[in-house]
Amino acid sequence: MKMKIVFVTFFTLLVVFAAAQESSNGLTCDQEKSLFAPCFDFLTKKTDAPATSCCQGLKQIISSASTKEEKQAACSCLKDAASKFLPNIDKDRANHICQTCKSSTDLGCQK
Q1: Which residues are in the Bifunctional inhibitor/plant lipid transfer protein/seed storage helical domain (predicted)?
Q2: Which of 24, 48, 78, 104 lies at a C-alpha separation of 20 to 30 Å from 62?
Q3: CB distance 100 to 49 below 8 Å
Q4: Contact at 8 Å (CB) between 86 and 56?
């Protein structure tokens, strides 16, 4: 009986661990907001250029969003964060931040 309980517990943990590994490819909205936060000064014209951490975070968000649905979710998340925390956002800077950061691709948020 003890052996059966140990096996069931081990199997359950294995399934939970495997599920966690699969979902870790994408980022949560909170993680995306955190990675995007260093861009706020640039987007509100407090700085002339985005910080290195802004571009690195943006590239990490883009690389984690591999499907159309993940890209749409990331766009929604970042647009929501911008509307809540950045009332004075420069829309031109926001629409071109991927180019400014020299990212070879973008999320397509301006579409």
Answers
A1: 18-107
A2: 48
A3: yes
A4: no
pTM of the model: 0.72
Q: What is the pLDDT of residues 77-94, one digit of tens each?
A: 998 888 888 888 998 999
The alpha carbon of 69 is separated from its chain's Cα centroid by a whole number of angstroms, namely 13
Residues near 106 by beta carbon (within 8 Å), at least 6 away in sequence:
62, 98, 99
Alpha helices by DSSP H, the chain: 2-23, 29-36, 40-43, 52-64, 68-85, 91-100
Calpha distance 34→57 (Å, rounded): 8
Residue 1's identity, in one-letter code, is M
Q: Is the dihedral of CA 45, 90, 82, 99 positive or negative?
A: negative
